[in-house]
Amino acid sequence: MNKSWRWLAVIIIIVAVLAPLIPQLIWSFTFRWYFPSLLPGVWGTQAWEYVFSKSSRVGEGLINSLNLALVTSLFSIAVGLPAARALALYEFRGKSLVEWLLMVPIIVPGIVVIMGIHILFIRYRLTGTFLGVMLIHLIPCIPYMILVMSGVFANYGTALEDTARTLGASSLQTFWYVTLPGILPGLLVATMFTFLISWSQYVTTFLIGGGRIITLPLVLFPFIGGANHAAAAAISLVFVAPALAVLIFISRSLATESSIMGGFGRL
Amino acid sequence: MKSATKFHRMAIVMLVGLTLLAACAAPTPQTVVVTQIVAGTPVQVEVTREVSVTAAPQPTAVSETPPVYTSWDEVLAAARGTTVYWHMWGGSDTINGNVDSDIGGPMRDLYGITLIRVPLNDTADAVNKVLDEKAAGVETGGSIDMIWINGENFKTLKTAGLVYGPFTDLLPNSKYVNWDDPAMAFDFGFPVEGYESPWGHAQFVMEYDTAQVGDTPPTTFEALQEWIHANPDKFTYPAVPDFTGSVFIRHLFIWAAGGPDPFLGDFDQATFDKYAPKVWTYLNDIEPDLWRGGQTYPEAAAMTDLLANKETAFNMGYGPAGASLNIAKGIYPETIRTFVFDTGTLANNNYVAIPFNANNPAGAMVVANYMISPQFQLTMADPNRWGWLITADPRLWGQHDQDVLASYELGVATLSADVLAAHALPEPNGAWVTAMEEGWIKNVLEK
Amino acid sequence: MQRLHLIEKLRVPLMLAPSLLILTLLFVGGLVVGLGQSLGYMPVIGLNNFTLRHYVDVLTDNNFLQSLWVTFRIAFFSTLFSTVLAVAFALILRETFVGSQLSTFMFQVPLPIPHLVAANGIVLLVTQSGLIARLLATVGLLNSPSDFPVLVFDRAGIAIILTYLWKEVPFIGLVVLAVLKSVGPEFEELARTLGAGRWQRFWFVLMPLILPGIVSTSIIVFAFIFASYEIPLLLGVRFPTTLPVWAFNNYRDPDLNLRPEAMAVSIILTVISIILLVAYRRLARYAVTA
Description:
The complex is a heterotrimer of chains A (267), B (447) and C (290). Chain A is mainly α.
């Protein structure tokens, strides 16, 4: 009984996860494919030729998306890590207010904020700049970094660091040799979240990037629901590849380190 | 305890300070200039697409005026080696690729100009951006150098004084455009007056599947109505404000009025009310037998897919050669053909305009000039490349170029230029279009 | 010594300052400007007087309730189904068995994939001429695309909900899984020895443990879906639209006078979202203590 349930679940997971990915894989190699054929009548590589051509701007979008996601993530770490530690390990007056302020972008719909800030960014000439787009991506990224890492810090505690310090290690040494290895799996997961949040942004990049900063979502968006499924599918696959690579890298920490995803339960 | 309270107070003071700072960031000294220029009062809130930035820009300071050129040589000198940001609708991989190779390529080779396409979902986004920049006081060095534009969007910008120019007299190739033809000098009934330069010409055609419809398509609206009722679920049109959906409805108004004339002048509510009920009755009558029972209306781009998979039997659009190109690209089966209504189909031009605050108007002018050259117009007319209709008047070309144009063979599903020309109708004035779109939303979509 | 004391005292404020500074400036700044515009204060286009008119306009619009209902329905059902499925899969995946590692990995795959890609895949899968329809036609269950149910651009928003399910089940599932793994089997063993049945063990032992995680993640998911624009725009009907689509379409209109209305719609959206989430959290707390 238990066993057949398991097998059913395994099959459902695999089929459901692959179901939306398989048609995209097939379509990306399609030239002619009309209803009701199960497979394309004529295969072709036109879509991939388009993706690799300069005029598709997929390459440019890929580089911009990667750069933005990496810089936004590094910035989120630099800014969010100390805050997460402070929230996890220190008690202070006004803590709940600060906690609320730092978490509020996760709960409060961002749409009004983005539309409100747009005019300010135009005035200060931040639209159409890398800096402007990165700043707007930070709004959802920093709270996620803090959310995950405060869970990790709280779980990790200070005992090991205290020991290291009593043994004569400097603050820098303590951080590098004791703290960092301890929080690293969690940090990787948190970075994956910030990376992917930035990686998936459409509305924010669209408004603030103003077409000057082309990222992959901007390249893909006009094709979804359009007639050229082959091109849409091929661009989608380019969009998926780096994200999947990131997942393979941290998959184990995601499933085994309970404190990391558990951080979301602390909201 | 005391210090903790202090910290608490300090934190609150800091937060309040930051909030105020952020709030005050809105009115900066520049606002003074802007509010003077802007005569906008909040009267027009109910009217969509009404222009809010109404007054023309006043040349306030020297640094705030756009560059002025008196000769083509000056323009060329200023344009060489620059970058031009061209904001244009980006949902067609064919057009994207063609623009890069057939306009971007020559620009790089001839003038060292880097042409960067900025893809849009909707041209209104670019118009919106120019308005935003105006509102935020960005008078020079704006982010858009050139916009693919026509109709209502051009009218919005020009009425607000937010286009650069007039500049077409400066373009040497402007001599190939027959500006005496009202079809060129007026864009949806609105005078161009040198503020935008044409490139492609467009005429509406209907596409149908001979395998489903047979060889004689319904070329009148009465016949179409009958066909729809006899074949439920096989016809639809895109929802406005989609460009294509909007033009389909315009055709119905012209059909209802027995010709385009009532809609060429200024908007008149009485005339509108006279013909509108017939159109809404027609559309509501066919609605239950439309694709999806009229529950929803597709995107223009999705219509292609519906026809390709025989979910519907018709598509429509502004590209007379689009069906032939789609057959060649494998998107359409080979049974697709095109037709025009006996009562005629609308024709208009694609233009490019330069925003008032463009960073590089000289570069944009060089690109616009190339786009009306015989060389590019021939590339555009080539059925195997673009398959577009041209805006230049070939009679003003040299004999060789005219011969090349005459030698082109039509695509398999493309109607001849003569048939198209014989059925061409002028576009209604922009105010009519807005009223028709709003009327459709109220009387058909939300019914 | 005095200096060290000062550094010690400033430590926490210094650690928090960068995050607070950025988020307050950007988030609160944007919120305040947006709030101002929704109240008709937009000096750049000559609107200088505060007014509640735009809120009145939106709230008395015939389509407002319809749009609100569509927005709520999509967010509610996406969240509800995601949560139920996520808990079910987490309960299965917490145990080790042949293929559990593979399943756990596959379960995580949608997590990093962007919503736009998921939407594109769902479209290609479930339109009337999509892969499922082709599959059914191949085995002879379907004659023409119109025999297949309408799942994309439909009034119920099925394709939208499917897209969100595909994306959010793994997210909630992994959080629940993390909690389940950290708990270990001891509590359940204890309950079993005390004679608790399978259902009782789930409801009275596991549920209180995983409930905080479920509440938090479903709040995140609901808030995200309630305010998102891209997927309802791409896969939804043109009318009635969701509130974020309404707001953003007005914002993108070349008529700048529609901006205050766009802002009013999104402020209303924000307020409703917060009210719903606070009520939900209260309810969940009450359920835990009861």
